[in-house]
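Q: Predict the bound structure with flavin mononucleotide.
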Amino acid sequence: MDSIDGAHVAEHNSKSSCWIVLDSNVYDVTSFLQKHPGGAAIILKQAGTDATREFQNYHPLGYVSILPAGSLIGRIDPGTLGNLRKQKESAPKVAHGDGLPHPSLCVSCPDFETAAKAILPHKSYIYASGSANAGLSLKTNLDDWQRIQFRPRVMRNVGDVDTRRAMLGHSSLYPFYIAPMGTLGAIHPGAEPEMVRGAIAKGVHMVVSTASTKSAQEIMQSFADEQRGLSDQSPTQLFYQYYMPVDRTKAIELMHIVKKCGYKGLWITVDAPVLGKRTKDRALQAEEALAVGMEEERSAEWEVGGENAFAPAMGGRAVTGQLSPHTTWDDLAWIRKVWNGSIVLKGIQCAEDAKLAHEYGIDGILLSNHGGRQLHTAPSALMTLCEIRTYCPEIIGKMEIFVDGGLRDGSDVLKALCLGATAVGVGRPFMYALGAYGAKGVERCVDVLVEELAIGMRLLGVTALDQLKPDMVNATKLLNDMWKPESFRNRL
Ligand SMILES: Cc1cc2nc3c(=O)[nH]c(=O)nc-3n(C[C@H](O)[C@H](O)[C@H](O)COP(=O)(O)O)c2cc1C
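A: Predicted complex:
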């Protein structure tokens, strides 16, 4: 392979000819610029440089395979690295010594967002905090927790409380878990392994995103290494969030990889046949494109990174959806056969689909609107849970029901459990905690949620989670707003 001088690479620094170095290889990415799901501007900023570090903030190095055939044009002459254009990095800073408050000063979830906002690159904060369209689905998520009130019982000897709960047969110290979020490398240099470290230290389960910065194998390896270093094994388990590739062969291949790694369940995201309109990301991409002299930018975001590995199977086309848009309920038959383990459908948003999932024999459903990042004015998980309670209560207890979206207080977990949920997923609070403080922040965030949860249990009058009952909450505000669907008229 040709050896190329850094000075020569540095000359190819425009949209008409864009070369970058990745892992000592030189790539001509000019024809890929407009196909990059994250937008052309991100690559163009790296033109003529060694982009390895920046690339690894978002993708496993293996993702170079998505580049069109013929992009690889040679190896960089190591003696000429100094001749490359100077790299512009947007790696998040490491918290220590940056004037952040000590993690123990974070006493509630919103404190982690304040800390993260102060330290994260603007773009990373926009990625984490953004939502779809005018942000109303996210707002509903946050608001609906407050629309349910407790009905506490008193004088019940609440000296000791037990917060343990099993998820898909795997016991956890708590009834909440870390929700899958893509591209953690944009949030902390340690990316997913750093989150895993925090999870293991506290014994909380975690669902790993297909769109992770590190590969499924690397993340599981970090989990195994961390567990090996402990005298007592942590109860933490890793589950895998699955964005199904469009190509069936690639879809099966990915499931085999995930299974071999030892992930405990497949959480298939079903609320993203196309990517929602992430308004803040779109605005930022447009700004970045203009800054490098490009006017037209496609919609995209880092979260689609997980699909990049499968782009060749899609004719090299950049896609904006994570789940294959062609997926139907019938596909569950072959998926179950291939996976041969627990399956959760992530993103159920009405009682009809919850009932269908039960009829299809699915192990669990996650009521979720993707943290308000997909459909505009989607229902909150709590509203969907109330629908299930009203229209198909018979499925409660027959399958595991998870909820996520907008949870910012540990005691609110109890509301979901009273209404029949198995456990609650927590997303952004952990992402912000990771961004500000790394694994220590993740640990602190667990502590904050657990303290609120345990206090909440005592004040509600329960000592174990199986004592939680629908009578312990007043959900009339949500019930009054609930739609009476045609499909369940006979049940009213
Ligand atoms: C920055 C970010 C990235 C996300 N990435 C994914 C993803 O890759 N796959 C997925 O199924 N859900 C993803 N989600 C949705 C979360 O799994 C979860 O549904 C949501 O964050 C819960 O809402 P909360 O952040 O208000 O707790 C993401 C959410 C955020 C905030």
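A: The first helix runs from residue 6 to 11.
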